[in-house]
């Protein structure tokens, strides 16, 4: 294969069917992972208590200290939903 041919590879994604069932499965997986995370926290809470700040630090912390939310860094929900309804996506490798 020549160098020119190898640099113009194109990859296709198969059409996405049954979006409803995929979304339902995602919710189930998310719930399971949340439950696992909660169990982990409950099991290890004593291990992490030594790192707990005392009340002085909690009462003197403001949201500005933690960080401000920047809406420009979040995804546009309409844009994401529109992409899911495309019959296929064309991805070109560089």
TrEMBL record:
Could you give one GO CC term from the UniProt record?
Answer: nucleus
Protein's GO biological process? regulation of gene expression
Write down what this protein is called: Activity dependent neuroprotector homeobox
Name the UniProt key words of this record, in alphabetical order: DNA-binding, Homeobox, Metal-binding, Nucleus, Repeat, Transcription, Transcription regulation, Zinc, Zinc-finger
Q: Please indicate if the UniProt record lists rRNA-binding as a keyword.
A: no
Q: Which residues form the ADNP zinc finger domain?
A: 12-78
Alphabetical list of InterPro entries matching this protein: ADNP/ADNP2, ADNP_Znf
MF term (GO), any: DNA binding
Q: Does the keyword Cytoplasm apply?
A: no
């Amino acid at each position: 294969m020549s160098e020119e041919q190898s640099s113009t590879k194109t990859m296709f994604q198969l059409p996405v069917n049954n979006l409803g069932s995929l979304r339902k499965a995602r919710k189930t997986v998310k719930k399971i992972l949340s439950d696992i995370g909660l169990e982990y926290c409950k099991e290890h809470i004593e291990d992490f208590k030594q790192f707990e700040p005392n009340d002085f630090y909690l009462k003197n912390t403001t949201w500005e200290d933690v960080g401000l939310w920047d809406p420009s860094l979040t995804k546009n929900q309409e844009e994401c939903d529109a992409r899911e309804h495309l019959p296929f996506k064309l991805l070109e490798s560089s």
